[in-house]
Amino acid sequence: xxxxxxxxxxxxxxxSQGHSIKEIKNILNVSLSSVSIWVRDIELTNKQLKxxxxxxxxxxxxxxxxxxQNKIKAREExxxxxxxxxxxxxxxxxxxxxxxxxxxxxAGEGGKTxxxxxFVNADPKFIKFMIDWFKEFCDVPAEKFRGSIYxxxxxxxxxxxxxxxxxxxxxxxxxxxxxxxxxxxxxxRNKKHLMGIFRIKVCNxxxxxxxxxxxxxxxxxxxxx
Length: 225
Description:
The protein is of the alpha+beta class.
């Protein structure tokens, strides 16, 4: 009897190849509900959907496909509307707002060890925000920034380095050695970071202590009013 993880991996492979949920159920001898959950993040191409529709063994699938596509589209539209509405609630950010936002973001993702000014993230929006924040509120000159990436060995390191250098404005000669992790094809990842994970680093002990002071001040209840 195969383990659950093996079955899940095989189900994803079969779905990616264009098999129907019912076909996967029969091949793996598992329940339809399990297959549905395991493969719900796998999107079929238009060609695969057409082949499934034309395959008589899938039965009356056209209605199910259309219903599923409509459901996905409706969810995407709803998500878009909610996000746009939420962005308007934030409104224009003042300098003070940006300062506090950066302190809060650093509190969550920044280095806390004494003298370790660092920020690690895979989201380019956060990396760009924090680069600008370090420049604006910490007066960090461009030549003091250091960058590095964490990336799996099956991805393009050179492409990733070029991407992050262009985004941050940190020249490649200010990058330290990349951390190359061995890819595990059996490990399921909901999201692949094709450009790896980026780390901003600045060497300045006094500035780090100041930033940690800002973090402490932000969560100190005595300053609330």
